[in-house]
Amino acid sequence: MFKVWKVSVLAVVMVATSMIALSSAEMWEPYQFQPKDQKYEYKIISFEDDVEKVSNYVLEIDKKDDGQLEISVKTTWVAAEEDLGSQILGGWWAAGAFGLTMAFINPMYAAFFGGLDMYEGNKMSFFGAGVVEVTGTEKVAGRKGFVCVFRNEDGGPVMGRYVVDPSLPLPLKTEIFEEDGTSQYQTELMNIEI
After folding, report:
1. Domains: count for the chain
2. Structure pTM?
3. Which of 45, 58, 83 is nearest to 170 (CA)?
4. How do residues 1-24 score in pLDDT, each as one tens digit?
5. Sign of the C-alpha dihedral, residues 104, 108, 111, 112?
């Protein structure tokens, strides 16, 4: 009798602990910026023809007294003299906002994260498009984030690895891979002011 009672109490404690953990889990909503002063500085690495290209990206939002928001973007990179052509007008990679957005998180995948509770071990499938799994935590720029791995539905190679802090609109770190596993892009938060 005493043994059955102990098992019952243990089961109740485990269920209660699981429910508390699930109810306190946060969701990450990418690109949902707050109308306040903030600054994000990233190192971005792209790989083209086995050549690593490094740039620095700074996004700054300043809230003005009249409620308007002043947004500035600064991208810096090193280029050879022969690269001084029209391609430098487009900023980072000359790919404009879509290219930069892809480096942070593929817009197609961004919607997947909206319903994913951030706790280790959580996994969500997206209608045959892939699976995101929260595999642990990692510190980036002094902030703790959840490591989210994105794979094909069949459990194939990792297509993306994201470290996210649910309180921020941008990932702390991203690694995007080609289907053969080679790196395509990497971003890493270096400094943040919020």
Report:
1. 1
2. 0.80
3. 58
4. 545 444 343 333 333 333 333 445
5. negative
